[in-house]
Write a structure and sequence with these properties.
InterPro entries: ARM-like, ARM-type_fold, EVH1_PP4R3, P4R3-like_central_dom, PH-like_dom_sf, PP4R3-like. One of its GO terms (molecular function) is protein phosphatase activator activity. It holds the Pfam family PP4R3. The protein is α+β, with helices and mostly antiparallel strands and about 750 residues long. It has 5 domains: about 100 residues, Pleckstrin-homology domain (PH domain)/Phosphotyrosine-binding domain (PTB) (PH-domain like, Roll), CATH 2.30.29.30; about 160 residues, no CATH class; about 90 residues, no CATH class; about 130 residues; about 200 residues, no CATH class. It has 31 helices and 7 strands. It has a 7-stranded antiparallel beta sheet with strand order 4-3-2-1-7-6-5, sandwiched between helices. A hairpin with a 6-residue loop joins β2 and β3. It is elongated and about 100 Å long.
C-alpha cells in the first residue's frame, strides 16, 4: 500500500492518491512496468516503465523516488510498510539487471531457451511439473508465470478441482504438492492473483490446500475452525452484500496471514496481505459512512431505552471498531466523518457509556474519545464547555477508579484537552480550565486526602468515604494531571497551591515510593513558577515539612525518592529563592545536618551562609525582597559604567549608614563556587547553570534604587579584597575606602 506523490512547479509534493503497487508487463508490450491501482475505485494512479538507467533512489526505508524521463517530473512512492518498500526496491533492481543483460546481448526480453511460453494442463499427473515451475522460477519467470495464470480464467478453478479430487481420494502426496503450489502462488506477491484467490469463491479452498503442510505430521483443521468457531456478530443489520463480503474476506485474509501462513510467509508477502486488509477496511468504512440511514438506525438503537444491555454493549463495540478502522482514511475524510458523528450525537452516547458499571465498556468509550481527539481535539472541547455537558465530570469521576493498565487513557484525554499549544482560542482554554478547577479540583483534593493513611483522611473520609486502598496507578495519574494543570496555565498556580497542595503532600504518608515521588514532583512543578506569593504561602504553611520528614526517614539510602528531594533543594538554591532558602535552613537545619556530607546539602548551607550577611538577624521577607531588588539595580549601573569611581564611593559610604537595619544580600554577587551535581531526577526548564553567588540575568530581577546597586558592589569588592590581602585584587579599583 503506497501513496503516490508528484513534485509540482512550486517545488512541493502533490498527493496523487493511495493505492496498491504491483510489477507487471505493460499492456501490449513485453516491457516491464510499475503499476499503482487506486484502493477505492480501482483506477490507475501510476504506470511507469522500468528504466535501465540509475534514476531510482531509496529514502528513509519507506520511500522510493525517481525522475521519470518520459514525463520529465519527479515522482515518489511512500510505502506503509518497510518490508513492502524493500520488496519493490529489490524487484526494480532485479528487473534492471535483466533488462541490461538482454540489451547487451541484443535479444528480445524472454526470448531465451528458458522462456516460459505456457503452463501445463492442470491435472493430477501434471502437479510435479506445475510445482517445479512455481517454486523454481527466477524473478523474470515469475512475472511471466503470473501473466499466464491471469490469462487463463479457469486456471485457479481447475487447480482447486484437483485439490478436491486429491482430498477425496486421500492422496497425501498430491495434497502436499498442492500446499507447496499454493504457497508458491501466494509468494508471487501479485496483487491481481491475490484478489482472485482471496475472493469468496476460492478462499476456503485455498485455506484447505494450506492444511497439508509437508513439515507438519498431521493436517491442520483451519476450515473447521473458521466454520464452527468463528461467529460473525451483526450488532446492527448490514444490508449491502458488498460490505458483508469485504468484512468476511478481511477476516479470512487476516486468519490466513496470522495463523495459516505465519510460519512460512516472507515479509514482503505479509506486507502485501496487510495492504489488502487495509484496503478492504478503508472500503468498508467508506461504504458505511456514505450510508446515511445506517447511522441513523445505529444511533436510534443506542438511544432507545428498550435496547437490551447486551445489544447496547455490542453496538458500542461496533462503533469502536468502526472508528478504529476509520484511521485508515485520509485526514480530510477522517475529519468529515468525525464531524458527522459529533452532529449525530456520538459524545452524548459516550456520556451514557461512561456511566456503565461495565468497566470494559467504559474503556471502550474512552478509546473512542481518544480516536476522535487525535485529528481534531476541538471537536470534544467544544462539547465539554457546553453548560449541560456532563462528560468532563464523568471523566474525572472515572479517573478516581481503578482500570488497571488502561487507566492512562483518562490521563491522555485530559492531556489533549488541556494542551494550551493546541487550543483554538484563549477563551476556550479559559473555559475548560475554569470548569475543571471550579467543579472538579475540590473533588480530586478530597479523594487524595481520603486515600492517605493517618489523621489526614479522617475529615475527608466522613465526606467522601475512605479510599485508603486506592491503587498507586490511580494516584500517580492524578498527580500527573495536576502537574499538567500547572504547566499549561501558570496563572492558576496560587489556586492550585491553596486548593490541593496540602492534600497532595499527604501522599508522602503512603508506603509506595512512586506515589511519594509523584507528590514531590507536583510540589517541585509548583516551585518552578517564579512567584513571590507562592514562596510566601509555602513558608507561611510550612509546606516543606512532610518532604523533609521523608528525607529524614530515608536515612542514608541512595534511591530515586531521595534524589527527587535533593533536586528540589537544589532548585531552591539555584533559583536564588532567598525566602525559601532562609525558611529551609532556619527551620530544618537540625534535620538536614546529618546529611551535610552530601554535596547538595553542603551547597545549600554554603549559599545560606553567604547570604546571611546581607539579611541580618531580624530581616523580614519584605526586607529580603527589597534588598534583592536594590542589589540588582546596583549591579546594572556598575556594568553600564554610569558613575565614576569617586561618585560611587561617596554614594556607597552614604548608603552604608542608611542600609544598616537592612543588610544587602551579597549572595548574588559573591565569588562563584565550583559547580556541584544536583542529584535530581529530572531536568526542569527553569534550571540554570549552577553558579552559587553569581547574579542572575538582569531581566529576571525587579528594579530598585541606584544607591542599592552601588552598595552591592562596595560590599562585593570589600569581600574580594579581604580574601586576597597579600595578593593583587583582580577586580577594578576598589569602590570603597579603607
Amino acid at each position: 500500500r503506497v501513496k503516490v506523490y508528484c513534485l509540482n512547479e512550486d517545488g512541493k509534493w502533490d498527493d496523487r492518491g493511495t493505492g496498491l503497487v504491483s510489477m507487471d508487463y505493460l499492456e501490449r508490450s513485453e516491457e516491464l512496468g510499475l503499476f499503482v491501482i487506486d484502493e477505492d475505485d480501482n483506477e490507475t494512479l501510476l504506470v511507469h516503465r522500468i528504466s535501465t538507467e540509475d534514476i531510482y533512489r531509496k529514502q528513509e526505508e519507506t520511500i522510493i523516488s525517481w525522475r521519470d524521463p518520459e514525463r520529465s517530473t519527479e515522482l515518489a512512492l511512500s510505502f506503509q510498510e518497510t518490508a513492502g518498500c524493500t520488496h519493490v526496491w529489490n524487484q526494480i533492481y532485479n528487473m534492471q539487471q535483466n533488462l541490461h543483460f538482454n540489451s547487451v546481448n541484443s535479444e528480445p526480453f524472454y526470448n531465451g531457451e528458458s522462456e516460459l511460453k505456457e503452463l501445463p494442463d492442470v491435472e493430477i499427473s501434471n502437479l510435479p511439473q506445475i510445482l517445479k515451475i512455481v517454486t523454481e522460477s527466477g524473478i523474470t519467470d515469475q512475472m511471466r508465470l503470473a501473466e499466464l495464470m491471469l490469462k487463463d480464467p479457469d486456471f485457479f478453478g481447475n487447480l482447486m478441482n484437483v485439490f478436491e479430487i486429491c482430498e477425496g481420494s486421500k492422496d497425501i502426496d498430491g495434497l502436499r504438492m498442492m500446499f507447496s503450489i499454493v504457497k508458491g502462488i501466494i509468494s508471487l506477491n501479485n496483487s491481481q492473483i491475490l484478489e482472485k484467490i482471496l475472493g469468496d469463491n476460492l478462499i476456503m479452498k485455498i485455506i484447505g490446500c494450506l492444511e497439508y503442510d509437508p513439515d507438519v505430521p498431521q493436517s491442520q483443521p483451519h476450515r473447521k475452525d473458521l466454520r464452527e468457531h468463528v461467529v460473525f456478530k451483526e450488532a446492527i443489520p448490514i444490508k449491502d452484500p458488498l460490505i458483508l463480503s469485504k468484512i468476511h474476506q478481511t477476516y479470512r485474509i487476516g486468519y490466513l496471514k496470522d495463523v495459516v501462513l505465519d510460519r512460512v510467509l516472507d515479509d514482503a508477502t505479509a506486507a502485501n496481505l496487510k495492504s489488502v486488509i487495509n484496503a478492504n477496511q478503508a472500503s468498508v468504512v467508506t461504504l458505511l459512512k456514505n450510508d446515511i440511514t445506517f447511522f441513523q438506525e445505529l444511533f436510534a438503537m443506542l438511544r432507545s431505552p428498550s435496547t437490551s444491555v447486551e445489544s447496547r454493549s455490542n453496538l458500542v463495540h461496533f462503533l469502536h471498531e468502526f472508528c478504529s478502522l476509520s484511521k485508515s482514511l485520509q485526514m480530510a475524510s477522517q475529519l468529515w466523518l468525525y464531524r458527522e458523528l459529533m452532529n449525530a450525537g456520538i459524545f452524548d452516547i459516550i456520556t451514557e457509556v461512561l456511566q456503565s458499571p461495565d468497566k470494559k465498556l467504559v474503556l471502550t468509550g474512552t478509546d473512542i474519545l481518544l480516536i476522535l481527539l487525535t485529528p481534531d481535539p476541538n471537536l470534544l472541547r467544544s462539547y465539554v464547555v457546553q453548560p449541560d455537558s456532563r462528560l468532563l465530570g464523568l471523566l474525572v469521576k472515572r479517573m478516581m477508579e481503578d482500570f488497571g493498565d488502561e487507566h492512562c487513557q483518562f490521563l491522555e484525554i485530559f492531556r489533549i484537552l488541556l494542551d494550551s499549544n493546541a487550543l483554538s482560542t484563549g477563551a476556550q482554554r479559559a473555559n475548560i480550565m475554569d470548569i475543571f478547577c471550579e467543579k472538579h479540583l475540590p473533588e480530586l483534593a478530597n479523594f487524595i486526602t481520603a486515600s492517605c493513611p493517618g489523621d489526614a483522611s479522617e475529615c475527608a473520609s466522613r465526606r467522601v468515604g475512605s479510599h485508603s486502598g486506592t491503587k498507586p496507578k490511580v494516584l500517580l495519574d492524578i498527580c500527573e494531571l495536576l502537574c499538567i494543570c500547572v504547566q499549561q496555565d501558570s496563572s492558576r498556580t496560587i489556586l492550585l497551591l491553596e486548593s490541593v497542595t496540602k492534600n497532595v503532600l499527604f501522599l508522602t504518608r503512603r508506603k509506595e515510593k512512586p506515589v511519594v515521588a509523584a507528590a514531590i514532583r507536583f510540589f517541585r512543578t509548583l516551585l518552578s513558577v517564579h512567584d513571590d506569593n507562592v514562596q510566601s504561602y509555602v513558608v507561611k504553611n510550612n509546606m516543606l515539612k512532610p518532604i523533609i520528614d521523608v528525607l529524614v526517614a530515608g536515612g542514608n539510602q541512595d534511591n530515586l525518592l531521595i534524589s527527587a528531594i535533593l533536586e528540589l533543594l537544589e532548585h531552591i538554591r539555584k533559583a536564588n529563592a532567598s525566602v525559601l532558602l532562609k525558611y529551609v535552613v532556619d527551620t530544618f537545619w537540625d534535620q538536614l545536618a546529618p546529611f551535610e556530607q552530601l554535596t547538595s546539602i553542603q551547597a545549600l548551607k554554603k549559599k545560606y551562609d553567604q547570604c546571611l550577611k546581607s539579611w541580618g538577624p531580624k530581616s523580614t521577607i519584605d526586607d529580603m525582597r527589597g534588598n534583592e531588588r536594590a542589589l540588582n539595580k546596583e549591579e546594572d549601573n556598575y556594568v553600564r559604567g554610569n558613575s565614576n569611581e569617586e561618585k560611587v564611593a561617596a554614594a556607597s559610604s552614604t548608603q552604608k549608614e542608611e542600609a544598616k537595619p537592612h543588610k544587602s544580600n551579597v549572595a548574588a554577587a559573591s565569588p562563584a563556587s565550583p559547580r556541584l551535581r544536583s542529584g535530581g531526577l529530572v531536568d526542569y526548564e527553569d534550571d540554570a547553570d549552577d553558579e552559587d553567588c553569581k547574579s542572575p540575568p538582569e531581566n529576571s530581577r525587579p528594579e530598585a534604587s541606584e544607591e542599592g546597586r552601588e552598595e552591592l558592589f562596595r560590599l562585593e569588592n570589600k569581600t574580594h579584597c579581604r580574601e586576597n590581602e597579600e595578593g593583587h585584587c583582580n577586580k577594578k579599583r576598589r569602590l570603597c575606602s579603607t
